[in-house]
Specification:
By secondary structure, this protein is mainly alpha-helical. It has one domain. The protein has six helices and no strands. Helix 1 packs antiparallel against helix 2 and helix 3 runs antiparallel to helix 4. The longest helix is centred in the first third of the chain and has 35 residues.
Length: 172
């Protein structure tokens, strides 16, 4: 199971990177188009959709790699018991908030599909299509938080803490 989850998080990171490359290609096509006198229809729309996908696909991978901002200035001085309790409470709160976001992201995609909403740009596409990566990314983050919560409840070190020392050493 661990191997499957790690592959899911890595795939999420790769999808995020792919979306960033896609943004670059769209912008380059738009620049070349301006030089040679043609337009790339809805380039801004597709760049925006790719940016949203890149952001949300990158959440789970970044969380697992310890890349999210954590303020450890105070908690690093706490004892093991207090720090464990703080980590537990924060992960439970994060799980609740991200579960709420996951539910409503999926609901938003479903409603857009049911009501057949389309984008208002030059190229009309069903709006649920660019919403799917957002929902998938937030669900992957939900899985990553649940994964680390279970790891913490087993009294092991969560994934984001394994990189905590590395980040501190880079600053020195």
């Amino acid at each position: 199971m661990r191997s499957l989850l790690n592959k899911l998080y890595l795939a999420s990171g790769y999808l995020s990177g792919f979306c960033i490359v896609l943004i670059t290609l769209i912008i380059v096509a738009q620049i070349v188009g301006r030089i040679f006198g043609f337009i790339v229809p809805s380039a801004e729309d597709f760049s925006g959709y790719s940016l949203a996908a890149a952001t949300f696909f990158g959440l789970a991978y970044t969380f697992r790699e310890g890349g999210h901002i954590r303020v450890t200035l105070v908690i690093q001085q706490w004892g093991k018991g207090a720090r464990y309790l703080q980590e537990l409470l924060v992960l439970i709160l994060a799980l609740l908030l991200v579960s709420f976001m996951s539910f409503y992201s999926i609901h938003m995609v479903w409603e857009s599909y049911i009501f057949e909403e389309v984008s208002s740009g030059y190229v009309s596409i069903p709006i649920w299509m660019p919403q799917v990566p957002v929902a998938m990314g937030i669900v992957m983050l939900n899985i990553a938080i649940l994964d680390d919560l279970i790891v913490l409840l087993r009294r092991r070190s969560p994934s984001y803490k394994t990189h905590e020392g590395e980040l501190h050493l880079e600053e020195i």
